[in-house]
Design a protein that fits this description.
This protein is α+β, with helices and mostly antiparallel strands. About 25% of the residues lie in helices and about 25% in strands. Helix 5 packs across helix 6.
């Protein structure tokens, strides 16, 4: 596993940043994660642009040209064809990129709803301050679920800790919570909205009992079917709309990168 810090490539275990960096001490920084297919990152320009927006909203100076050059230098040395690429910029001025092995995922997901209030100051920011997101996943696993589904104290459905939530209530139309609910403007979500006629609609906790099929979507997961929510089985797994969305996003990735669809 390789990393690059400020232009220097090394094994990830040997990469170093100062312990005084506020990216470490305060989670003050921004990051992106993208998936490598055949050693090439999907939607790299979109991820880099969002990193720039996150940094701007954090008032964090960042040289995106230098970040791009770092990633290109790292990928020239990388030998992992199927992997994740994490890019980080910190308040201490560090530019970091790491090629990581893909983590094993279950074939389908059981979700557990957890109460969560979005931080308005961090709207449109993919910040290093991810402790709440990581804790949500741990709490879900304590309830014998695979992943959390975040819901506001008023019962408004949001997203997963690191992924978007998409479902069908009627078996005919896919819907996803709108960005106005202060969820992340996910790049995979944006592609799915364009490719699969996914419609934005506010969802309540009560709506979850009517879900006919559902999936979580992210750069790493692509389209990941859901088989249960709070212990209630989802009727169709993977449903036809979910299967079609999974096939369409894979075709889209293959077309964009010129690689064979899996």
């Amino acid at each position: 596993m390789l990393a690059i810090v400020d232009g220097t490539v090394s094994p990830a275990t040997e990469a170093r940043i100062p312990i005084t960096d506020e990216g470490l001490l305060r989670g003050d920084g921004a990051f992106e994660v993208m998936r490598l297919y055949g050693g090439r990152p999907f939607a790299f320009d979109d991820h880099l642009a969002r990193l720039g927006r996150s940094a701007e909203n954090l008032r964090l100076p960042v040289d995106l040209d230098a970040v791009r050059a770092d990633v290109e230098a790292l990928l020239e040395r990388n030998e992992m064809a199927e992997a994740a690429l994490r890019v980080v910029v910190t308040r201490g001025g560090r530019r970091i990129a790491i090629v990581e092995a893909l983590k094993p995922l279950p074939e389908t997901l059981a979700l557990a709803t957890l109460t969560y209030t979005p931080t308005r100051l961090l709207d449109a920011v993919k910040s290093l301050s991810y402790a709440a997101n990581m804790l949500a996943g741990r709490l879900a696993r304590e309830r014998d679920a695979d992943e959390a589904l975040l819901v506001t104290p008023h019962g408004v459905v949001l997203e997963g800790p690191t992924c978007s939530f998409v479902c069908s209530l009627d078996g005919e139309t896919l819907v996803t919570p709108p960005l106005s609910e202060h969820i992340l403007d996910s790049i995979t979500r944006r592609r799915l909205v364009a490719l699969c006629d996914v419609r934005e609609r506010s969802l309540s906790r009560d709506d979850l009992a009517r879900v006919r099929e559902a999936f979580m979507a992210s750069t790493i997961r692509e389209v990941h079917p859901v088989h249960a929510i709070d212990g209630v089985a989802v009727p169709s797994v993977p449903g036809p709309l979910t299967a079609a969305a999974a096939a369409r996003i894979r075709e889209h990735i293959a077309d964009e990168l010129g690689v064979a669809a899996g």
